[in-house]
Design goal:
There is one protein chain. With 106 residues, the protein is an alpha+beta fold. It has one domain: Arc Repressor Mutant, subunit A, CATH 1.10.10.10. The chain contains six helices and three strands, in the order H-H-H-E-H-H-E-E-H.
Amino acid sequence: MTKSSAKQAVDVQGLIDVDRVIHEPARLAIVAVLAACESADFVYLRNATGMTQGNLSAHLGKLEEAGYVEIEKRFQGKKPNTLCRLTDAGRTAFKQYRTRVAKLVS
């Protein structure tokens, strides 16, 4: 095995080990937006990611199930408002994901 093929084997293993919950492009977009702020409401996330309401809701559910996102349903006046924030586990997972991907592409 040459030095180049050994590095490729390591790169492939790195891809296999990446956090698949975050790696999905729509969820990666959500996590990236939430990592840049303390919290964001559903409408802001929908606009920032360009997702449909149903698609965003489904992906937020996956992230919440994984313990990466906390969702708070509340009212602002008489209007319902959904507030989303990364949990500590979500911030840690996103940091680890970015570190792993950075190693793979360098």
